[in-house]
Design goal:
single chain; about 525 residues; alpha/beta
Length: about 525
């Protein structure tokens, strides 16, 4: 009964904290990070795929879907989150809120898993403090309050760690199979969490030595895990070349892995990822734990986790703070353990409460999630004006936000989107990696838009106008073929790329039947024909 009440208390507190984070999360189509609306759109694609069941031509179905909604990245990312989200879309409709709800269900599972993992070594209240710290860490809360894959992957990962630790403590081989299965599911959500497999191997090798290789179940677990990952590996090698390139080397890397700066880069992110109060306590905890390491049953796991993870992420040339959120788990744990170990019972609980409150304050007051609003309103205006079965041209930085908001309008599934950058440029994944301008004149572009059935254009003024091709586009929009019908502000809580979007009507002789058009998909090295 006491154990059950601990579960109930931990769950209730986590629900209350997550409700506060939900209240702070941008919704209503106000996306910020470019991947977020794409994740939400990928889930909509899976929903439509499972409804339509195009078994005769699934690849053609995907290409046609991209032609209508050209922000689809279904083959670029691991797909598990999209399949989990699809039933919720089917029940409640496609929306930003439903996609975020699925992320928050994972968020709850992540927090509860952190509590359960900490209970392997800590008392109930320190374990709850650890779970709350993990939920409230600034970097984790930043991505957990968006439609992103970090927290969903973390949820599978932390429960995998629970199964692994319990296997080590009790020897139940079934838990090792479970740990491997949950790690595979985590990789089908975000592939980079795979480094934890090396952590498990290192811990078992240290404990069992050569006997590790003589256990048939270990070989079976490894074989099943590799077999389960084969589709993900094939998909990544075939369609995720941009991800492979981010490991091998990128032109705009924040710091090269061959430099000292590159190897210190993730250490320098930790103050903003954790907040200074928790980071200072964590550093003190590492020093104290090192002195007692022989007597600490968790030391080998957390040391291996941090060292292997740090080496892994530092070897990847593309540096982003969100990539290393998986390194924060051992740091937060050591901080909580140090407080419990150093201070008397009541004083330790008070200190942990202070850590939780200070970390929550950093996150809730100083690290809000950026947003850019107004895109849903633009879509409403387009939905009101655009003729049936027509095409909308979009030119702007946040094409994914516009396209997802359009897909969310079930009453206007007849509308399709063309992207100006696809017509005028060849961009290698993102502009920083290279851009080539196509020699399309203003007259040719005007005729092309007529041929493609473009009745309306949504334009971000000044978008990439340092390029001549985009300047030609803006001159065409300012000419007699197009007339402005609306300007809609895009309010944001940060300095965004845009402040407004302009809607223009094509006054030219628009073809009611689109002509075939070839679109290059540089991300997967394909060219498709849009009919």
């Amino acid at each position: 009964m006491k154990s059950r009440s601990s579960w109930v208390l931990a769950s209730a507190v986590l629900v209350a904290v997550l409700a506060l984070l939900w209240w702070q999360s941008p919704r209503g189509g106000a996306f910020w990070w470019s991947d977020a609306p794409r994740h939400a759109l990928n889930a909509a694609f899976v929903t439509d795929l499972l409804r339509d069941l195009p078994w005769h031509d699934p690849a053609g179905y995907a290409y046609r879907y991209y032609a209508q909604y050209p922000a689809l990245t279904i083959l670029f990312y691991p797909p598990l989150l999209y399949f989990v989200t699809a039933p919720f879309y089917a029940l409640f409709g496609v929306s930003h809120e439903v996609a975020l709800l699925v992320v928050f269900l994972h968020y709850f599972a992540f927090g509860l898993g952190c509590w359960r993992l900490a209970r392997c070594w800590l008392d109930p209240l320190p374990a709850l403090a650890f779970a709350l710290l993990m939920v409230l860490l600034p970097e984790i809360a930043l991505w957990g309050r968006q439609v992103m894959t970090e927290v969903p992957a973390y949820a599978f990962l932390v429960w995998s760690a629970v199964a692994f630790v319990e296997h080590r403590r009790g020897g139940r081989i079934g838990l090792l199979y479970l740990a491997a299965a949950l790690l595979v599911l985590a990789m089908y959500t975000k592939i980079t969490v795979g480094f934890v497999g090396l952590v498990y191997l290192a811990v078992l090798a240290r404990e069992q030595g050569a006997a590790l290789l003589r256990h048939p179940h270990h070989w079976a677990v490894a074989a099943l895990a590799i077999l389960g990952l084969v589709p993900l590996i094939v998909m990544t090698l075939k369609f995720g070349q941009a991800n492979v390139q981010s490991v091998a080397g990128v032109a705009d890397a924040a710091a090269s892995r061959t430099s000292l700066q590159g190897w210190l880069w993730y250490l320098r992110q930790m103050p903003s990822q954790m907040g200074w109060p928790l980071l200072v306590v964590a550093v003190l905890g590492v020093w104290r734990a090192w002195r007692q390491r022989a007597a600490l049953p968790w030391w080998g796991l957390w040391l291996s986790w941090f060292v292997v993870g740090y080496l892994f992420f530092s070897l990847i040339d593309l540096k982003e703070a969100r990539h290393s959120v998986f390194l924060l788990l051992p740091m937060a744990f050591v901080a909580v353990w140090a407080v419990q170990d150093l201070l008397p019972h009541a004083l330790g609980h008070a200190a942990l409460a202070a850590l939780v409150l200070s970390t929550g304050a950093v996150t809730l007051w100083w690290r809000p999630v950026p947003y850019v609003d107004g895109y849903a309103r633009v879509v409403d205006e387009i939905a009101r004006r655009a003729p049936r079965d027509s095409v909308v041209l979009f030119s702007g930085y946040r094409d994914g936000s516009f396209i997802f908001n359009l897909r969310a309008r079930e009453d206007r599934r007849d509308l399709s989107v063309l992207r100006a950058d696809k017509l005028l440029l060849r961009v290698a994944v993102r502009r920083e990696l290279g851009v080539e301008e196509k020699p399309v004149s203003e007259a040719e572009l005007g005729q092309l838009l007529n041929d493609q059935g473009v009745h309306y254009v949504v334009m971000q003024p000044g978008f990439w106008t340092d390029l001549e091709a985009m300047r030609r586009f803006e001159r065409l929009m300012a000419g007699p073929q197009f007339e402005e019908v609306a300007r809609i502000p895009t309010p944001a809580n940060h300095r965004a790329h845009e402040t407004e979007l302009v809607i223009l009507r094509n006054k030219g002789p628009v073809n009611p039947h689109h002509k075939p058009l070839e679109i290059e998909l540089k991300m997967i090295d394909r060219t498709i024909t849009v009919n």
